[in-house]
Amino acid sequence: MPKKITKEKIEKPKLKKITADEFEKKVLELAGKGLTSEKIGQKLKLEGIHPKDQKKKISKILKEKEKYENPDLKNVEIKLERLNAHYAKNKQDKRAMREKDRVFSQLRKLKQYFKIPIEKKKK
Question: Are residues 80 and 46 part of one domain?
Fold first, then answer.
């Protein structure tokens, strides 16, 4: 008779109650490490601090302290940097060249949407 497969339960961390000041300090500390608002929320959830329990949103706290970076824009910029580095090493990779152009176009559209000045390519 085959053994029954039991699923191991992943223990969720117990929710911690913290004050608004402690929450703000924690958010700013994580922002100092270079995390975006969405990653800060994930990190806090893993630590057992639920952002929904607080009155202020993470992005609002970061905007007040002028540390807010648009996560969509930051993620696309990081992707473009990785593609540029890859393409610099592998000039024969035509797919990477096409992908680099596609991601650059995506970045340009996002900057246009968020009304951020677009840097011209240097020749």
Answer: no
